[in-house]
Write a structure and sequence with these properties.
The chain has 364 residues and is α+β, with helices and mostly antiparallel strands. It has 3 domains: 13-111 and 346-363, 3-Layer(aba) Sandwich (Rossmann fold), CATH 3.40.50; 138-203, 2-Layer Sandwich (Dna Ligase, domain 1), CATH 3.30.1490; 209-334, 2-Layer Sandwich (D-amino Acid Aminotransferase, Chain A, domain 1), CATH 3.30.470. It has 12 helices and 13 strands. It has helices at residues 24-27, 45-55, 70-77, 94-105, 114-121, 123-132, 181-195, 244-249, 268-284, 323-330, 335-349, 357-363, and strands at 13-18, 60-65, 81-84, 140-143, 159-163, 177-178, 199-203, 209-217, 220-223, 227-229, 260-261, 289-297, 303-309. Strands 8, 9, 10, 11, 12 and 13 form a 6-stranded antiparallel sheet that branches. The chain has a 4-stranded antiparallel sheet with strand order 4-7-5-6, with helices on one face. The chain binds adenosine-5'-triphosphate and magnesium ion. Adenosine-5'-triphosphate binds next to strand 5, strand 7, strand 12 and strand 13.
Length: 364
Amino acid sequence: MPCELANPRTAMVIAVLFNLKPATEDQSTQEEEEPPDSYAEWDDLETVLAVRDALSSEGEVVLIEANEDCFDRLRRIRPDIVFNIAEGQRGLSRESHVPSMLEFLGIPYTGSSPLTLSLCLDKARCKEILVYHAIPTPRFVLIDDGSSAEKAAQLPFPLMVKPVMEGSSKGITNDCLVWNMDDCRRQTAKLLRLYRQPVLIEEFLPGSEFTVGVIGNYPDVQVLPIVAIRFDDLPPGANPIYSYEAKWVWDRAEAPLGIFSCPAKIPSDLARQIADTAVLAFRALDCRDWCRIDMRLDAQGQPHILEINPLPGVLPDPNQNSCLPKAARAAGMTYNQLIRAVFHAALNRYGVAKTQPRALREHN
Ligand SMILES: Nc1ncnc2c1ncn2[C@@H]1O[C@H](COP(=O)(O)OP(=O)(O)OP(=O)(O)O)[C@@H](O)[C@H]1O
Ligand SMILES: [Mg+2]
């Protein structure tokens, strides 16, 4: 069988695991009842190649698409370590499929465990854990097919209505901010039908929004400069939320929306409170190597966790407004340095110096 590595086993072999966004014409063949944003979380080739290039100074990099053949390829190639950016093919545990396979095969990998990835993908379970740790997060109810949106009456309007297990603002369109029970009912029914999963209805936090990158492993973590998300540059009449339209329709590389500022221009006390809350959440969910935590202030100015992204997006083009690379740039790190910092955090966690591929192989 031909070997898939150019230079077998003289250097550390790093596999990048990813899901590639289909070309636009392939997306048009998707089932009619499939949501229009099905592939929003997957990566484009530019990102995959940028991650590969960033890691090329660390060893021999192999690209493995996280499709149904990937288990066989992983078993055959047996990389020393995987840099995981695969969001997963399907299902509610999709983000944990690749890390689970890697644990099964005994291959080290960057990023959080299958348990953490699944818990953070399920925003309601994640919030239950935050509540247990007394970390502020908006009050919420969960609506499944069997329960009705009327449960939301116990919360004060306006409310946010969102699919419980999506990212990249999938299903979070401009009309997910609702001001009355009729709209709440209508939006809930639409999301239940389209996304076939429970719907999370949350108190709307009206204050400023921030997102915070964390690199490393507790207690040795680096909190990157805080990114503030401002809504005054959205089209007139748009709701003050970082919606699907804001992320993917109104914000284009050729005409980026000016909605971010980093480092956020906020008083140092608030910055410290936001950074401390992010680290508490990182720790409570047992995040590893990297993470991006979305937060918003309530009417009293108190930071709350909206959600935790243990598999954050890393688009390399600065015009594409990807928040983790943006925060890294504000910290004086290049894109390549960011990717390598995550990689080294994983090596440190496995107790391996970067020049010792054999030591990693002993983990395999
Ligand atoms: N309870 C809330 N109060 C105020 N705004 C909210 C609330 N929930 C969500 N939002 C708005 O909707 C946006 C998207 O929500 P959320 O971060 O939960 O979605 P996501 O799809 O997981 O995002 P990501 O792209 O970070 O994975 C937030 O950035 C925020 O602007
Ligand atoms: Mg978010």
